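Ticket reopened. Same input as before:
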Amino acid sequence: MKATTRTVDGVEIITLQGKITIGAGDTQLREVIQNVLNSGKTNILLDLGGVTTIDSSGIGELVGSFTTATNRGGKLKLLHLPAKLNELLHVTQLITVFEVYENETEAVQSF
Amino acid sequence: MERGEGERIEITISSRFENIELVQVIAEHLCENAGVDEDGSHWIGMAVREAVANAIKHGNKLDVRKKVHATFELSGPELEIRISDEGEGFDPEQVSDPLNPQNLMKTSGRGIFYMKTFMDQVQYSFNPTGGTSLVMTKNLSRSSGIAQKA
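Engineering reply: fixed in the latest deploy. New output:
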């Protein structure tokens, strides 16, 4: 998994590309989120448009990241959800947990 | 391979996460060759991914000396997938329901749920001498896209 970050209007946008799967991107995602939070940035927008594969471990890390950000007084929202990830979040009812956006400007303004 | 023709594929891997994809790819190709469309093949491949990940992590406890055995048997439209580990066994009943509101925010416990979602049947059995076997079945004629090659 490859992660790049940039800041737009106080929102840290993390663009993820590749796989978020067990033993690969799952722990990497956790570290990226921790690093952003440790730098004092608590409004996080995860751009998942480039995620090619995700499994239950990756889903678990998304949930863990959401909880960690919330516990630190921040917010974590999702952008550009791939269709298959959207389906995985729906069947586990996690879609009710996350705020999901298709438009970056709209997502940034929502914080 | 024509639909309805029998097919059996076996692969044994060591307990490394990077080997999961090898087994997943076999599942997806087998399904695509049987006429299942890309989405249908993907979900069956995902069920296999979760099963192999569980076998490596919870079954063999990441011991690379222990193997995971995968067998795919296609008989007509019926696909049977068996994933076996060499661990001490675990009780799948102990895995809590991820849809229960009190479990919704847990970071683990969704793998078996996804397997049951994407396959017709998921059954565990335990070898008295050790190891857990998971058998998943899917009638491919009910998978999306299968009718295209009927």
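Residues 8 and 25 of chain A are 24 Å apart (CA to CA). Chain A has one domain: 2-109. Please confirm and we'll close it.
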